[in-house]
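Researcher: We're reviewing a set of sequences before deciding which ones to prioritize for further study. For each one, I'd like a predicted 3D structure that I can look through quickly. This is Vesicle transport protein got1b. If possible, include the structure in token form so it fits the rest of the review sheet.
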Amino acid sequence: MLSFEMNDRKKIGLGLTGFGVFFSFLGIVFFFDKGLIAMGNILFISGVALTIGLKSSLQFFMKRSNYKGTISFGAGFFFVVIGWPILGMILEAYGFVVLFSGFWPTLAVFLQKIPIIGWIFQQPFVRSFFDRYRGKRVPV
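Model: Here's the predicted structure for Vesicle transport protein got1b, in token form for your review sheet.
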């Protein structure tokens, strides 16, 4: 099993990513407040960069297979900043799904190991859904 070393930079990165998700959620709850959503985006992107490293982040976002997701996420961020948060969030959501679709199987395994929530994800109908997409990238 691979060990995941948790140094201070990665802890700060995970914290920034969490705060980014939280501020984005608050921005949606408060009727698509563009300031909160923009703050959430900045925190999320900086958290990802700190967690996996700047070089790895650039390689991930500039990979040829991730262009569609990167452009969509960037355009969504631009629309949020200029004052069209609903359109921006739709584009960002699409970009997020395209960019991180390869991580869904890993997330499914992680969720199955959580004590209470894991029971739900270990049920046969849910497990068969995740097993169908394990190891495959969803074509978009």
